Amino acid sequence: MMKAVAYQQANTITSKQALIDIEIQSPIVQGYDLLVRVQAISVNPVDTKIRKHVSVEHDQWKVLGWDAVGIVEAIGENVCNFKVGDEVWYAGALNRQGSNSELQLVDERIVGHKPQSLNAEQAAALPLTAITAWEMLFDRLQVPKVAAENTTILVIGGAGGVGSITIQLLKQLTNLKIISTASRSETKTWVEQLGADYVLDHRQPLAKQIKQLNLNAPKYVFSTTQTDQHLADIAELIAPQGHFGLIDDPEQLDIKLFKSKSVSVHWEFMFTRSMFQTMDMIKQSELLNQVAQLVDDGQIKTTVNQVLSPINAENLITAHQQIESGSTKGKIVLHGF
Predict the structure, then answer these.
(1) Contact 208, 217 (CB under 8 A)
(2) Lower Cβ count inside 10 Å, N or C end of the chain?
(3) Contact by Cβ (8 Å): 292, 112
(4) Fold of 2-128+279-335
(5) What residues are paired with 222 via a beta bridge?
């Protein structure tokens, strides 16, 4: 048996049944799976969305959590890139049990070796957001490492988890001018420290602020949050033949606004590769190893902003409440059972 935090019926975070401390059967490793003893986790908006909307049968438990650092305890018969005792980091798969448990099964093809220079709490802040940011920038938007001089990108929501790593990847791996949005003095300072060249206030019209900078119109726009509120602004400010990407879930998305400029629109969902067992699943392992190297080389820093301990229902409820408030800076991490 193992400790876990789970639930059965979709609910608000204020419900007594929202998240519960339980004990469940330990999983059995097979195939490409690693059995990982979880040391630290971080909490993401996807955790709150699943908790609010997905229920399971009364005799089942739903374990959330899609960011983890841990140590490999056992490997399946098909595993070839890891061994027992390896320190690993990963974001897991949406259609499997999550990391809010002492032991977790995860396919080796979406797992990387943990950065050696970070402890478990520091590293746990990065996997899901690093995969999301990397895939959006280099797989979806196809941002070049060396672009034409004065090519600009706008990152909406730069102080959040995904925005925080997006800015760092852009700063270290490309020559783009980085425009970020932030609304509070502390978050403006945060995105500047991460590498943003310019900071806009997303509570004010963005197109007008872009014009005042006297820069080239952004060829790339990455919206991490509140896309529905900014869509008309994005259509106005983006360069003709530009590339627009989003990761949130607007109720409606009228992309006709982009027709006159021939703008391409891209969704990024970092669970696609694991959910559909795509032929290139291994790319997530590869990019996590690349990010780990960037961390160990001192080019990327952790985005953890708060650490809670231990991993239990009480602390996870606190983390969910903070994320649902929409005012988080960086990542919330939980450590140890």
Answers:
(1) no
(2) N
(3) yes
(4) Quinone Oxidoreductase; Chain A, domain 1 (3.90.180)
(5) 155, 245
